[in-house]
Write a structure and sequence with these properties.
receptor; 5-stranded mixed sheet; single chain; mainly beta; 799 residues; Beta-barrel_TonB_sf; 22-stranded antiparallel β-barrel
Amino acid sequence: MSARDVWGSISLAGLVAAGWGWAPAPMAHAQQAANSSGKPAAETVLPGVTVDAPRPRPVDGRAPSARPTAAQTASSAPRRPPASSPAAALSSATTGPTATTPLNGNATPASGSRLGLTAREIPATVEVIGAETLREQGYHTTVDAVKGATGVSAGDAPNDVGFAMRGFQGNQINVLYNGINIGPTGFTALTMETFNLDRVEFLKGPSSLSSGQGAVGGTINFVTKAPHTGPVESEAFIGFDQRGTFRSGFGSGGSTTVRGLDYRFDISRTREVGFIDDTEFKNVHVSGQLNYRLSDSFRTFVAAEFKDYKAKPYEGTPLVPVAFSGANATSGIVSGTKVSDYNGTNLGAVTIDGRTLSTNYNVIDGHKTIKESWVRSGFEWDLNNAVTLRSQIYNYNASRDWYNNEVSAFNAGTNLVDRERFFVHHNHNIVGNVTDVTWNGSIFGLSNRMVASVESSHTDFTRPGAANFPGESVPLVGFDRGTYGLLTTQLQTAAIDSVAINLEDRLKLTDSFALVGGLRYNPFTLDRNWIRNGAERPGFPYSKSWQPVTGRIGYTWEALPGTTFYSQYATASDISADSIFLLSPTQNLTLSDSRSYETGVKQLVWNGRAEWTFSAFDIERNNVYSAQAGQQLNLAGKVKSQGIELAAAVRPTTETRLWGNVAYVRARYADYDLANGGSFSGNTPPNIPAVIVNGGGSYRFLNPGWWPVELGFSVRHVGDRWSTDANTVKLLAYTTADLFAFIDLPKVPLFATATSTRLAFRVRNVTDKRYAAWSDPFYPDQIFLGAPRTYEVEASFKF
């Protein structure tokens, strides 16, 4: 997201919610699934939807147990809480493998619940995309991965990280890292290579219970790779595209010569060249973890991570009058009429000028740099057969710098593009602890599992930002990009102290029917100051406290083996203005409250070869403020969102894989009355398409006379979206298609040490569709274009 948006996106909602942050469970990417009898079936991973459930390895030489049937899974006691804890992951290694299913219903996502439930046992829509699917679908970046999930959209520009789901966008989507919430998506969500990730988890709908403030539309959890117990396994890859992009990575993990000590280390390096002139981003990501089993009942871990991100950003392409562009006007990208929010001139019917499809309106010295570091450590202690104590401490530190021209607004009075600069820097530090106690027992003879946890965190945030905004006007094409110019700054600070008490419980009334619920009490305090020209601004410093209570209650009912019905009611809360730094102390500092009703069904059939899920939801968020141009906010009343989601995958034969998902949402404002007497009630919020469809398939040729070759495709359709609350400029629907081919090579002298070598060829956006990918409500005179056709080649190795 743009730096100007960052000026207004230090959402208190995200900063205070440093949620559960254990590291992931050990993952070994299974290439075989189990049918309902527990017997393996060949070739199970489905591109794009098939994901890799954790498959714990034997501990101390013990063989894993067979996978339970669907009925046994439903009637068994809940599993230990999953990945958010490496210590819990070590203990789970003795419980046997969890088989991969077409939609990964047997995976145990940390973001869905702390109760250790599988995705099928959680009364909500949960998706998991594992490392093998990230690799096979070519999801190089975290933005790529997010767009593969049901009903999720995102901006394509590497520097502009914005997500939307279930009728909400931006900071109403929580982004977690190993279960920890570090702040609002607008400035903390960093585009990164997926090589270091073990999986990406999605929890749809309000979810403050599991991830804290800000989770209205849903939660995305990025989980890094963690150690496994067993022989050392290593992997590496190298890839290129025709624009000059270069990607590489190396990872290794397994047991050391020290009994009980396992390790994991990963490093990736990316230089992605953008499709806009003189744009790119570079990212180095290093992550590592040690797990140590001191005894059968006590396990501990330490993990560290570092990211170094440097970008020459793309800040958007200006909307231009059709009358001005003439023969250069494009079709199929945008439509509608526009009065400039920056200079007030009437552009009339607008278009994207064909001469600007790769034009960079940023200044020559524009840049974005981010350095992040993590340190995490914790333990798990089985006090007895029924009680487990876990605790983790963590420290997150980030230094961020934006220095760009961010406004590019066409002026119909001068036929020039008005430009304006913006600068901001962040020093961001969080220290936190999460401690919980898990109890497995019974109530009145009914199986019960309860988790009680206490979270605490302290955030220090310092933000030197621009106090002046240099700018000028330039021709639409053929201009001197210039430099930033004079910069003067001002200082804003925030100190946030948060405590949260969580309680979750699962009570099994019968072997097939369970009640699942929880409550979260989360008092937090903000202390702010703002200094400009050496003096404190009026009303500063000030302090404000909140005490939100959120929760959920639902049920799961396995009416037939493999068929689970569910319903739930959930609530969430967040800062009403989305961005606390846009409100003065005299304005409304109350919280928004959200509620959701959801019901659905999840089914695994055909001996584990087919799986589908269906959900219907109704969400309402009250006391909403909405972003407007010029860093202004409107009191928008409420947002209502109803929709349905359907995902399915099937393996008709050993060689064939098919998958698809579709989401429909109707989102609109209510009680959105303007000060001038107008109204936006009934309008759709920006960047929310009514329909998103993903699908694909592949066929693997197994002729003994050939090297194994797999051919496949994927298709993505995103419906019309609006660029602002006014609903006057439409980002038109688009459909893109990708083609890919894999060749698995036998051992050859060049790669003699590799046990698996794969060459991958991919064409993205094969029809070279030009489309609008995203808009920024703070910059409504410009939009972000999607990437054109791209050719890629990659070699990967396992050894």
